[in-house]
Prior knowledge:
The chain is built from four helices and six strands; from the N terminus they run H-E-H-E-H-E-E-E-H-E. The protein has helices at residues 57-60, 79-85, 94-100, 131-139; strands at residues 75-78, 91-92, 110-113, 123-126, 128-129, 143-146. The strands form two sheets. Strands 1-3-5 form a three-stranded parallel sheet. It has a three-stranded parallel sheet with strand order 2-4-6. The chain is α/β, with parallel strands linked by helices.
Amino acid sequence: MQLHDLSPAVGSKKERKRIGRGPASGQGKTAGKGHKGQKARAGRGMRAGFEGGQMPLQRRIPKRGFNNIFATEFSIVNVAALEERFENGAVIDLEALVNAGLVTKVLDGVKILGNGDLTKNFTVKANAFSESAKQKIEAAGGKAEVI
């Protein structure tokens, strides 16, 4: 192979469309803009959501509810997931949950929920526990510590 044999991959190079360059180009005269009107003018462009003066959709739809900026949002983990990922007697904290892949996004902390069965005894350190999760951890001989 020599330098003069090299060529770009098929489809990687594309000629730019030369609009307004005569009738033979297929994009002459009105240059693909049709006849007259707002969309044919230079410098046109309407803001996102503009509907020609009609009340836009985002203003026609009623507002509902609110977003509480002070609410705490926990990453949740069920006891069934702890049962299958950790060995008996393990100390489970935030770092262990991240390493095990049970928590991918740490929000305001971790909450352990009681979905599933638990037979191994763990020492679980989390920001919050549901009542059923706490009961299941302690019934299996483990500890639920709030950090």
